[in-house]
């Protein structure tokens, strides 16, 4: 991600996995954003993130429990004071949960938890940070992370089209439905915020070896994040309202 094209980025869920690696890569790039806001619900427990913020002055840690509206509002105030008049260029809604549950094990509580974290929270975080994104958007033109963008980290498992035939053998009700809902949240945001010049899209990171993806996944977290950042750096108006994977391929909703 090129600094000349993006001054500030906020990533949710940076205690581990893809979120932590996104912050690592952004911080080590000489052309990375000047301000990298890494959020976590319990920063005191995040040793790797704390070490990163001590060695990289651009990395600022902000407490954010994505399920808690009060926490979202407090985080927004803090971020407003960090980014100031420049506003926020890029919001990456990355935090997520996944518990595999089939028709026999699924519960209403599990459904609601997944909907809250994976679909409702990204919507309300975007809503809270909208004034900061609008401030950034008003200072530039065109579409992309150089101006303002909302990137929702979704999953191909949320694709209704792909959940059929050979790909349909993994029946994780709560996760798949919550990511399908996130995809629709993304399309709604794109329809709403396009006129403000805020690019909105959904991005699938691939199947990645994290706590969520497990040890047998296809990709290392480095491979996934390198691809994601490459895609992010090239986004333009053509990608607004789209669903892509970490290689930049368009995915079916
Ligand atoms: P991990 O399980 O490794 O990390 C999940 C992150 O989300 C953690 O930082 C966790 O924080 C955070 N989180 C969960 N709940 C909350 C909350 N209430 N408030 C704040 N943070 C929270 O997952 P990945 O890194 O693999 O996944 C990142 C994103 O990528 C997710 O949206 C996931 O759905 C998506 N994805 C991942 C794939 C994979 O193969 N790994 C495939 C497709 C999509 P804490 O440490 O506090 O729990």
SSE blueprint:
Blueprint (H helix, E strand, L loop, with lengths): L7 E4 L5 H12 L6 E6 L6 H9 L3 E5 L5 H15 L6 E4 L14 H30 L11 E5 L19 H21 L5 E6 L16 H13 L9 E3 L8
Parallel strand pairs: 1-2, 1-4, 2-3, 4-5, 5-6, 6-7
Helix pairs in contact: 1-6, 3-4, 4-5
Bound molecules: NADPH dihydro-nicotinamide-adenine-dinucleotide phosphate.
Structure description:
- Belongs to the short-chain dehydrogenases/reductases (SDR) family.
- One of its GO terms (molecular function) is oxidoreductase activity.
- Helix content is 40%, strand content 13%.
- It has 253 residues and is an alpha/beta fold.
- It has a 7-stranded parallel β-sheet with strand order 3-2-1-4-5-6-7, sandwiched between helices.
Summarize this structure as a short list of keywords or feature phrases.
253 residues, 7 strands, seven-stranded parallel sheet, binds NADPH dihydro-nicotinamide-adenine-dinucleotide phosphate, 6 helices, Rossmann fold, alpha/beta
Approximate shape: globular
If you consult CATH, what is the topology? Rossmann fold
Total discrete domains: 1
CATH architecture: 3-Layer(aba) Sandwich
Question: What is the string of SSEs from the N terminus onward?
Answer: EHEHEHEHEHEHE
Low-confidence stretches: none
Strand % is 5-15%
**Strands of the biggest beta sheet: in what spatial order?**
3-2-1-4-5-6-7
Organism: Channa striata (Snakehead murrel)
Family: Belongs to the short-chain dehydrogenases/reductases (SDR) family.
Domain Ketoreductase: 7-246
GO molecular function: oxidoreductase activity
